[in-house]
Amino acid sequence: MLYLNRMIYKIKLIFHLAILFSLLGNSVMVGQIDSPTPRNEDSINSLRKLLPDSLKTQILILGTPHLITIGENFQQSLLDSLLIVLEQFRPDIIGVESIPPHLIEYMDRKGGYYAQVVKQFSKDNLEYGEIAQDLLNLTRLEAKQKADSLLHSFTKQNPISEKSRLDLVLILLASYDLNSALLQWSYLTENIRLNNETFPSTAASFLNERLEAPNEIPAIGIRLGKKLGLNKISSIDDHQDKDLFLEFAPDLIKQIQSHPLYKTTTESPIYIDSQNRLKEAIEKGDLLPYYRYLNSNDYTKKDTDTQWGLFLRTNLESGLDRSRMALWEVRNLNIVSHIRRVTVLNPGKRMLVIIGVGHKPFLESYLNKMIDVKLVHFEEL
């Protein structure tokens, strides 16, 4: 019996040692066990190190003012130098601050606050999308599938004809992909755009006007996309935070605007300096120096601290200031998700994101934690 008990004990001991060695894996050597991984080492960062920077997906975030604020002083020539610099990056993908087509459809159908938001930010996508859907007798999803199929069929060996491009523009409009439709429209000759009897006249007039509008999407994104021969523009904005935000926005605005820190923020020297620099750049006919300033570390740090630090300094009893800050994070996290989704099937490629400068530091912070992403900074170009 004693012998049997000893055998059982030995078997159990061998069994437990076998489990221990299998868990330790390659860290166990004869007469030596390596030190365990420190608790404070970032596991995700370890994954990032497995892929060389040279192979990672490169993303450049270009912070921009909303050019509509320039008003009648706006001319596309103001951006010529900027486009030359951005062309050096040679992005394979261009993303812009616009709601993705599938979200437009979802938010419009959901109604309530979402319907208000989508009609505010995507009114033209809906209006001209519905005109195109009626003409083609297609749903948005059917139009998207047809547009994708057409785009994949066009190659250097099988270039697109002007007739097919006109058809593609209408199909893209039906899919709510207004920005890609506008890019394809820009490839058409001016004669075709102005004198075309088969294309809906209201849509043609709108697209012609939109190409010249004081807006960063056509003025930078579309023009650069055409220079590079791209076929699509990706929409990466998000407003799914607005169902919560619009519920408390009136109370928040009332409480914030009555706080003594509010006036200090709106009259901050950084915004006075920014306006002066913009005015000077317009007078000189070149916005490139202004974009360099907006995308500098110095500006983004001061802007973020002034604009968003306000909501962490007011200490409202209601807590709505912190709720606003949280929803700003929600929106930017969703935008990063859209950016990452666009790059999924394009590993190792280059993506330019053109977006309001207030988003830039948040997007860069989140993207910098992605495993297969390398940020490129504007000052590096």
What can you see in these coordinates?
The chain has helices spanning 2-24, 43-48, 80-89, 101-110, 113-121, 123-136, 140-153, 162-174, 178-187, 190-194, 201-211, 216-228, 242-257, 260-266, 269-284, 288-294, 297-307, 310-313, 320-343, 360-367, and strands at residues 28-29, 32-33, 57-64, 93-96, 234-235, 350-356, 373-376. Helices cover 61% and strands 8% of the residues. Helix 7 (140-153) runs antiparallel to helix 8 (162-174), helix 8 (162-174) packs antiparallel against helix 9 (178-187) and helix 15 packs antiparallel against helix 16. The longest helix has 24 residues, at 320-343. It has 381 residues and is α/β, with parallel strands linked by helices. Strand 1 (28-29) and strand 2 form a beta hairpin. The strands form two sheets. The chain has a five-stranded parallel sheet with strand order 5-4-6-3-7, sandwiched between helices. A two-stranded antiparallel ribbon has the order 1-2. It contains 20 helices and seven strands.
